Amino acid sequence: DRRVIPDVKPGYMRELLPDAAPAEPEDWENIFNDIERVIMPGASSPACTELEMILMDWLCRALGLPVFFLHHHPDSRGGGVLQSSVSESTLVALLAARKDKILQLRAELDQDVDDSVLNARLVAYASVQAHSSVEKAGLISLVKIRFLPTDETLSLRGDTLKQAVQEDRRRGLVPFMLCSTLGTTGVCAFDQLTELGPVCEEEGLWLHVDAAYAGSAYLCPELRWSLQGVEFAHSFVFNPSKWMMVHFDCTAFWVKDKFKLQQTFSVDPVYLRHENSQAATDFMHWQIPLSRRFRSLKLWFVMRSFGLKNLQAHIRHVRNALTQELLRRLTRSGTMYLIPAEIHSKRIIRFTVTSQFTTAEDIRRDWGVISKTASVLLAETQ
Ligand code: PLP
C-alpha cells in the first residue's frame, strides 16, 4: 500500500519533531501514533538516519555536552551516531585519529612513504585503568598504546601525559591520541580532563572520552563536575544501554569533526550512490559496517516515555537510596535524631539544632558520627 521509495526531502523530519527531549513523560499511545506520522512517510530510510540525528542532538543537549557535537547547529562540524558498542566506537575514533595524523605527516614530508611506515611511528595513550577495549583497538590497528600510571585516586593527570608525550617525541615517535575515561570499569574513577585537555591541544592529540557507564549520570546537572574539560574532546562515547534503561545494544558516539570520520571510512562503489548523496548525511561513512539497525527508535521511546525528569530521577534514585540508608543507620545509632526532606526531587537529611544546651563540641561530635557512617556506607557500595 505504500510507496517503495519515499517522496520526502532530506531534513523532512526536523519539522515534525522538537529540538530537545521532553522534560515530562508522554503517553505510550501518543508516542506509538508518531510511528505513522513521523517514521512511515520516510520508510526505513531516510527516516532511520533522520531520527538518529535528531535523537543524538536530544541526547547531546540532555547530557550538557558541547554544541560542537550537535548535528543541527550553525557552529558545528560534528554530530552523533549510534554504534553497537563502546569498543567499536573507540576503535572508530582511533582509526579516525590515525588517519588524520597520517595525512598531516604525509603533508609535511616531501618524499613518498608508505602509510604502514608512518603507522609504525604512531603512539596513543590511556591510563592503566582504561578498559581493555583500548588495548584491543591498538591490537587491531597495529598502533602502540602506552598505558600511563594514575594518581592515588586512580585518575590520569595532565603532567603524566605531558611527560610521556615528551619522552616519546625524543624517541622519534609521533603521539596522536589520548583515550581518557570518565568512570573507569574498576572503581568509576575520572581522568582529569581539565588538565589533559590542554595537553592534548598543545601536543596535537585527538582526545577521546570513554564514559561507557558513567555517561548516563550527566543527565543530572549536579553530576557534571567530572565533565569539565570535555570542551577539549574530539570524540565522546557512552552506553545508554548501561544506565539509561535503553535495551542493549545502544552506544552513543559523537565526533567534533565529522569530516575526519568520513575521510577515514568513505568508499564510493556505484551500488551505494544515490541522488541525495550530497544533501543528506549518510551514516555508512561514520562506522565500520554498511548496514544499520534502527536503534534510535528505542532511544526515542525511552526518552519520551520517561521524560528527562524521570530519567534524571532514575539516576538520582541510587544516590537517594544511599541517603535513605545513611539516615536509617544514623537514627538506629541512637546518638542523634534526624529526618529526611526532598529538595528539587533530591533526598536530603535535615540536621537541626533546637536545644539551648547544644554546644559547638556536640555538633563536631555529631558531624564525626555522620561522616564516619557515610564513609563506611560508601565503602560498602564500591
Ligand atoms: N569502557 C568502559 C569504561 C567500560 O566499563 C566498558 C564495559 O563494559 C567498556 C568500555 C566496553 O563497552 P562495550 O561492551 O560497549 O564495548
TrEMBL record:
Coiled coil: none
UniProt keyword terms in alphabetical order: Catecholamine biosynthesis, Decarboxylase, Lyase, Pyridoxal phosphate
Keyword Lyase: yes
GO MF terms, alphabetically ordered: histidine decarboxylase activity; pyridoxal phosphate binding
Cofactor(s) needed by this chain: pyridoxal 5'-phosphate
GO biological process, one term: L-histidine catabolic process
The keyword Lyase is annotated on this UniProt entry: yes
EC number: 4.1.1.22
Positions of post-translational N6-(pyridoxal phosphate)lysine modification: K242
Gene Ontology cellular-component annotations: cytoplasm
Enzyme class, spelled out: lyase
Family: Belongs to the group II decarboxylase family.
Assembly information from the UniProt record: Homodimer.
Record protein name field: Histidine decarboxylase
Part of the full-length chain shown: 1 to 382 of 558
